[in-house]
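User: I'll paste a sequence; please echo it back and then give the predicted structure.

Assistant: Echoing your sequence first, then the prediction.
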Amino acid sequence: MTRRQFGASSASALALGPFLRTEYSAAGSVADQPLHQVRPPFRVIIDTDPGVDDAFALLLAMRSPELKIEGITAVAGNVPLEVGLPNALRMVEIASRADIPVAAGAKSPLLRRLVTAVYAHGDNGLAGAVFPEPKIRPTGEHAADFIQRTVRRYPGEVTLITIGPVTNVAGALNSDPELAGMVRNLVMMGGSLSGGNITPAAEFNIYVDPEAARVVFHSGMPITMVGLDVTRKTALTAEHLKALEAGQNAVSQAAAAIARKAIEQHRQGGFPSGPNMHDPLAIAAFLRPSLLKWEDYYVDIETAGELTAGETVGYRSRTGQAAAIEIRGSAPTLARSESPSTLRDRVRPNTKVAMDVDSPSFFDLLIGRLSGKQ
C-alpha cells in the first residue's frame, strides 16, 4: 500500500463510521491509528446515467483508492440508455480501469415514459465533448441482476452509490425482497428538501422515476441523500477548468474537455458559471462525510401529485431526531366526515440528508484527484 493509499483509506474508514455500519470511530486522527486498523477499500456499485456530472463522478470514483468498484450499472435518465451506456464505457477506458464490469440496465422508468435532460447535457450526454467509440463491451448481465448477485455475494459489504434514477435498484429490490437487508448503505444523489430543478417540487433523478424512488425509500436499507440542498453550491468555474487543463494525465484532460464544453454551454444559456457537480458530491460524501452537515429525516416520495410528482418530502421530529413521527394524508373533502387520516404512525427517520457542504474542500478533493495532485 502506498503512502497516498494508506492516508486515503484510513481517513475514509474513520469518517464513514456514523453512516455505513462500520466499527471504525469517527473520532481521532489518522496518525493515531495503528497500521493494522487500516481496512481494505469499500465495495461499491455505482449506478449512473452519464451525463456531464456523472462522468466527473465516475472519474473521481475510479481515482479513489478507498473504493473497490465492483461494477458500474447504467440506467436511462440524463440521456437514453443507448447514449449513457457508451459514455460509462468511455470513462472506464479513459481511467484505464477495464477491470471494472459495466452492465446495461433499464431503458425506461418502472411505470412512466422516459424524460431526459439532453437540454442540459447535450445530445451526446457530455456537452458535445467528443471521445472515440469505446472498445470494451458491457457484460451480458442486466444491471438489476448484477446488483442482486453482487450484493448477495458480499452480504453487508456493498454500498450502492446511485447518481441517476434508481430504476435498476428498485428492480433488484422488487425481485429479491431480502436484498435490502444485505446492502451496507445506499448513497444517493437525488431529491431535495428545498425545491426542485425540473419542477418547483421535484429534483430530476427522483422525478424521472418516482415509483422506483419510493421502493428504495420504503425498503428499510440505510440511505444517505445528497440532494439539491447541497449540490446547488458546487458550480464548476473557469478556475477549476484551468486546474484540470494543467493536469498531465488522461483523466484530467478528459474532464477538462467536458468541463470546457459544459461551461460554454452554460454561458450561452445565460448562466454566470458552469454546471453544478451534483453527482461527484455524492461520491465525495461517501469518501469524506465530514465535508457535509447532516440531519436525520423520514423521507418519502410523492407519486400521485399532478404538480408535485417526484417531490421528496422530509419529516423531522420536533422533539428529537430519534423520536417517532406521524405522517398525515390529505384533509378530508366535504363529502367525508372523518378526521384527517394518519397514513403512517410512529415512523422513524430513514435517511441521512445532507444540509450544507464545504464547497471549497469538496473541489480540492475533486480537482485534486482528477488532475493527479492528490
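The longest strand covers residues 292-301. The chain has 13 helices and eleven strands.
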